[in-house]
Amino acid sequence: MAANDKFDVLRSPHFKKPKFGYDIIEISSDSSIESKLGDTSSDKYQLRFETPIYLNKLYFEKKNLRSLSFKSLFVVNDCTPIEKSVWRIKHILFSSYLADVNWVINEIGDSELIYENIESILFVSHSFDNPQNYKFKNCNNMKDKKISTYSPYLKVPYGVFHPKFILLVFEHLFQPKNNFVRFVVTSANLIQQDWELKIQSIWVQDFFNSIERKDCEFLNYLQEFLKNILNGSKLKDFWLSKVQEFNFEDATVKLVASVPGYFFGNEMYMWGHLRVRSLIKRFISKDQGKSDELREKQERIVLQFSSLGRISEKWLYSELASSLSVTPETKLEIIFPTVEQVINSVEGISGGGSLPVKKEYICKPWIKKLLYKWGTGTMEKNATAEKVIPHIKTFLKYKIYDNAVEIAWLVQGSYNLSNAAWGQMQKDGSQFCVRNYELGIFIHKDQFEFERHFKLNEEFPKFFWRRKSNCSFISGIHANKPVGLLNFPLPFKLPPKRYSNNDHPWNIELLM
Predict the structure, then answer these.
(1) 126 & 270 share domain
(2) Burial 34-66, CB ≥16 within 10 A → b, else e
(3) Is 391 a catalytic site residue?
């Protein structure tokens, strides 16, 4: 079935033709992802607190405050035109598994001001096709000298370079102390289809220049990760030095990364699922006062991904689940699209190519028992998520209190469900093997004490957050329900809807 085939389920009086040839339905604002799926609690009167996590703006989606387009990441804010801005982008570091470099540089190079002021752009990716042809459209040279590419060395067999992030350095025209870096961690590859047709997660935050050098866990971890992925790049020292110029003390998340290698002792807890385990342990004491019944019977772990490796039941429960939960009784829920959902999506069956899951992996009997539907799971007429292929990857723990749902922690980024990505214990637990490069963010409800800061009548970076002086976020339980909830724009329902006997998980063999 061709990518531009029309399905009756998508027919509407309002169709638009994207540049890359798909027929798209325009969905009304009342069926937006946020309004239909982002509400994780039936109690609309609970306090909900903003977080720096967004979804991407889909091609057919009307304006949504919780969604961002690719281009929107390259402007200081939405109110100041580029030509009137007092900031200019000087350096960019792109990281992605797939990278359509010509599409990216054409997207950011629409303005001559951006092109004229950028000094360097580094693309780091698993592989490149024709790097000698990359150039800005208003550059006459065969290759623009501002653009360089690099593919990291994979130390362990069968691994891939998979992290998806962007570092943008903005320099102030008059006051260097107001330079800032924008850090973006996403699930989207650097290709047009990923940003416009598939649901993705985006964490983004702006960080100003550091007045004085301070030891900072977030910066130290970021530098360690950059050392690994840029080892061999001519710009390694430049970027390690550049990120030191900024103050990351008010980072709203913790970073979770994977780098290929064999690790021992405390070094094992730097990467993969053991990194998540070490972060979760910091908050265990805050859960001790809650009843065992609530902790053990109501906690659930969601595993939502776009690709599945050859995993064993033993690895899933004794390693990954053990890192994600301190209680072995915690229920696991795998959210993955059905065949019907993929066929009836905006892209049709061809869109399933971005869900490269083998039938023998997803149809194991013990995995099928854990399967839950993507989106609302109802195939209702206005359910946006049922029409969009997910490329987002979300791992989270949530709890149910009466009719309320509370997300305790969340990991989003590049991680799929595989031991190559998350790591695997070897040699009776004395060695930890990681094959992939990955990057994600970890956010815990008891750690989040931040608010977005802005200035009226003055140009100011739109993703600047700082720690609250008087923390107004109340994380606790009152009358058997959470008092305050962090607002995560999730494109699926909690709790999810279980597969019926007539549902079958999508598998890549259906395209062959």
Answers:
(1) no
(2) bebbbbbbeeeeeebbebbbbbbbbbbbeebeb
(3) yes
Read off the pLDDT of residues 300-351 as tens digits, 9 standing for 90 and up: 999 999 999 999 999 999 999 999 998 777 899 999 999 999 999 989 999 9
Closest CA to 203 of 75, 87, 304, 56: 56
Q: Which amino acid is at 350?
A: S
**CATH number, domain at 145?**
3.30.870.10
162 catalytic, yes or no?
yes
pLDDT at 135: 55
User: Does residue 25 form part of some domain?
Assistant: no
- Reading phi first (left if > 0) and then psi (alpha if -120 to 50, else beta), residue 82 is in alpha
Question: How many structural domains is the chain composed of?
Answer: 2
Task: Give the residue numbers spanning the domain of 140.
Answer: 53-254
CA dihedral 87, 93, 99, 103 (to 10 degrees): 20
Selecting among 91, 273, 391, 444, the annotated active-site residue is 391
How confident is the model over 427-454, as pLDDT tens digits?
999 999 999 999 999 999 988 888 888 8
Neighbouring residues of 101: CB distance < 8 A, sequence distance ≥ 6: 123, 128, 131, 134, 147, 149, 190
pLDDT tens per residue, range 2-12 = 333 322 222 22
Would you say residue 107 lies in a domain? yes
**155 and 213 fall within a common domain:** yes
Flag whether 393 is marked binding. Answer: yes
The predicted structure's pLDDT at residue 131: 53
Q: Which of 91, 162, 273, 444 is the catalytic position?
A: 162
Tokens found for residue 9:
């389920």
**Same domain, residue pair 369 and 406:** yes
The confidence score (pLDDT) of residue 377 equals 64
